[in-house]
Amino acid sequence: MFLVDSHCHLDMLDLTAYQGNLDSAVEQARTQGLGHILNVCVSLKDFPAVLATAEKYAFVSASVGLHPNEQDEETSTEELLKLAQVEKVVAIGETGLDYYRSTGELEWQRKRFRAHIRAAQESDLPLIVHSRQAKTDTIDLLKEPASAGVQGVLHCFTEDWDMAEKALALGFYISFSGIVTFKNALSVQEVAKRMPLERILLETDAPYLAPAPNRGKPNEPAYMVYTAQFIADLRGVDLEILAKATTENFFRLFKRAKHV
């Protein structure tokens, strides 16, 4: 079995259980079928650490971006394009809109999102989109004429089928985290059931959002198998079928990622 963790923060992992040893955490993930991990950047100040993990492990790739809630730094399309030239960078983001953790006038978030969209277009790399309580504006920005042709994924999807349909119509993929295993996540589970198999991605978003039965613990890539099994059961398919499809989906979208 070959699984892909399409969204992880390896440089942020809580390594207490591994006595601070990232190699041990990565090896444990490998024993659970993880064949590739995308280490996602949320702060350009931390980009060197994100890139270092990708350069250390052949089966890890990286992204470059600035999370919508990061307010202590800024970036530009030009800076993102420059950093995206690094060989192991396979995506722009994470970026997007978050109206839950940030309040007040949020035009600065929308401006930053547009800068990332332009970088994705000009680099021909997929966009990793974070959207929280910003369903309408997220879709509206992706539908703008200036966003034409951009592809990507709505990561850690927590919205409804209406948003999923609109994202699919724009050519986007939908990625499910451990949230889908939570008992009260009925709307997300419904989306996971209805999604076309060829547009589903899986992620941990580690160290956050550990799936059941590890909910509440620090998350790690090894827990990817729990989310994958849950969605396979939800859809009534064999885990191997889901693993194969989601792996193919990942490498179809993230074309620069190396299948090793």
Report on the architecture of this protein.
The chain has 260 residues and is of the alpha/beta class. The protein has one domain (3-213, 222-253): TIM Barrel (Alpha-Beta Barrel), CATH 3.20.20.140. 38% of the residues lie in helices and 17% in strands. The chain contains 9 helices and 8 strands. The protein has an 8-stranded parallel β-sheet with strand order 1-2-3-4-5-6-7-8. α3 crosses α4 and α8 crosses α9. It is globular and about 40 Å long. The two termini are 14 Å apart. The relative contact order is 0.16.
Which secondary structure elements does this structure contain, and how are they paired or packed?
Layout: E1 3-8, H1 22-31, E2 34-39, H2 47-56, E3 60-64, H3 77-83, E4 89-98, H4 107-123, E5 127-132, H5 135-143, E6 152-154, H6 161-169, E7 173-176, H7 186-194, E8 200-202, H8 224-235, H9 239-253
Parallel strand pairs: 1-2, 2-3, 3-4, 4-5, 5-6, 6-7, 7-8
Overall 3D shape: globular
CATH topology: TIM Barrel
Rg is 17 Å
Strand content: 15-25%
The CATH architecture can be named as Alpha-Beta Barrel
Number of strands: 8
- By helix and strand content, what is the structural category? alpha/beta
Distance between the termini: 14 Å
